[in-house]
Design brief:
By secondary structure, this protein is α+β, with helices and mostly antiparallel strands. It contains 3 helices and 9 strands, in the order αβββββαββββα. The strands form 2 sheets. It has a 7-stranded antiparallel β-sheet, sandwiched between helices. Strands 1-2 form a two-stranded antiparallel sheet.
């Protein structure tokens, strides 16, 4: 008579299996980091803009629509957004020697109050540009509604930020406009724009 011994499978992991687990985990972390890096690079991709007549060089988001045919030096808009299109606008105006940023802000307030619905100034504050130049900022809101009655929709509250600095006899006015509900999320785009702006 023979005895057959039945032994259960060993639950120990072999060295090869252990290294395979480590490799899969490392591979997953590296793939995640690469994916996040590629996503950030695509979201933060910029296009250079230069205007030698006014001495400005800037970088704006890659997929935004550029417009330089208005009463401003240039304007870019995020056309992929629904509703109000997030806008960055740059304007340069010649000024007299004794003109201050406060004078320019007062002019903007008077002209906008006549053209923008429910225009309201929230705050005026000193602002320091990345290159340590002094500027003045003004935040405000207004209500944007569709002009075309066939495309009428609910009015949108727009929040804006103007940064004004005076350099070499000209005022540089940097404007950021966004739907109030997405203003905080979109503001870093404008901050990157200002950091890269040269004038």
């Amino acid at each position: 008579m023979s005895v057959i011994e039945i032994v259960g499978r060993s639950d120990e992991i072999t060295q090869r299996q252990r290294w395979s687990h480590y490799f899969v985990l490392i591979y997953g972390v590296v793939a995640l980091l690469i994916g996040v890096n590629l996503r950030d690079a695509a979201l933060n991709a910029t296009v250079p803009y230069a205007n030698s007549q006014v001495g400005i060089r800037a970088y704006y988001p890659q997929n935004w629509l550029l417009d330089s045919a208005g009463p401003y030096v240039f304007r870019v808009r995020d056309m992929s957004q629904r509703g109000f299109k997030t806008t960055i606008q740059l304007d340069v105006q010649p000024v007299a020697i004794n003109t201050t940023a406060r004078n320019l802000l007062d002019q903007l307030i008077l002209s906008r109050a006549q053209t923008l619905s429910a225009y309201s100034v929230l705050a005026r504050e000193p602002y320091v540009l990345p290159d340590e130049r002094q500027a003045t900022s003004m935040t405000y809101t207004f209500v944007e509604s569709e002009i075309n009655p066939f495309l009428e929709s609910l009015p949108v509250v727009v929040e804006g930020l103007d940064i004004i600095t005076i350099q070499r006899g000209q005022a540089i006015i940097m404007t950021f406009l966004s739907d109030a509900s997405t203003y905080e999320a979109n503001l870093p785009i404008f901050e990157r724009f200002i950091n890269d702006l040269e004038f």
